[in-house]
């Protein structure tokens, strides 16, 4: 009951979107990450992943700073032993990469970290291989669109001999 109330409240917050330079989504989605990290109940973890999947499905266009928490929850789900939890988290993560990649570039490191955790879960080889394919697509995307990430990279002088 408490988790469902938290989901409903979060959905209301996500409806409003987030103004530039604000990070309140990250704050109100943090309890989902906390529950996912601390819960031993597979049913509760499954509920958390379902809540996140629903939020992504319904409000992906208004999510800004919340991507970090979403990828953190799916990262935790990626190492789970319950097939239903891993599959739903991976399906949603794949969907994010296929349909909302440009919106998540602010949390790109979290997204790749999440994919790498799926890739390392040997209990689910199909998801693992697909996660590796998605990581490869990320690398190709960065190579083709370096300007998309240039504002996030520190200015490091490169000697002309190293080019």
What would you say about this model in short?
By secondary structure, the protein is mainly α. Helix content is 69%, strand content 0%.
Helices and strands in order:
Elements: H1 2-16, H2 24-38, H3 42-59, H4 67-78, H5 83-99, H6 108-119, H7 125-144, H8 147-150
Annotation keywords:
single chain, mainly alpha, about 0% strand, about 70% helix, about 160 residues
Largest sheet: none
Q: Which radius of gyration do the C-alpha atoms yield?
A: 17 Å
Which bin fits the share of residues in helices? Answer: 55-70%
Q: Count of DSSP helices?
A: 8
Could you walk me through the main structural features you see in this protein, from its secondary elements to its overall organization?
- 69% of the residues lie in helices and 0% in strands.
- The chain has eight helices and no strands.
- The longest helix is centred in the last third of the chain and has 20 residues, at 125-144.
- The N and C termini lie far apart (58 Å).
């Amino acid at each position: 009951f408490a988790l469902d109330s938290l989901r409903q409240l979060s959905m209301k917050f996500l409806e409003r979107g987030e103004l530039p330079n604000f990070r309140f989504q990250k704050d109100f989605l943090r309890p989902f990450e906390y529950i996912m990290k601390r819960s031993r109940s597979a049913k509760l973890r499954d509920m958390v992943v379902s809540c996140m999947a629903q939020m992504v499905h319904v409000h992906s266009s208004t999510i800004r700073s919340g991507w970090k928490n979403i990828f953190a929850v799916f990262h935790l789900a990626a190492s789970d032993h319950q097939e239903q939890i891993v599959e739903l988290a991976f399906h949603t993560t794949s969907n994010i990469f296929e349909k909302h990649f440009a919106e998540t570039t602010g949390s790109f490191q979290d997204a790749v970290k999440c994919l790498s955790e799926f890739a390392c879960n040997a209990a689910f080889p199909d998801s693992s291989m697909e996660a590796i394919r998605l990581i490869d697509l990320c690398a190709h995307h960065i190579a083709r669109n370096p300007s998309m990430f240039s504002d996030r990279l520190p200015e490091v002088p490169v000697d002309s001999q190293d080019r």
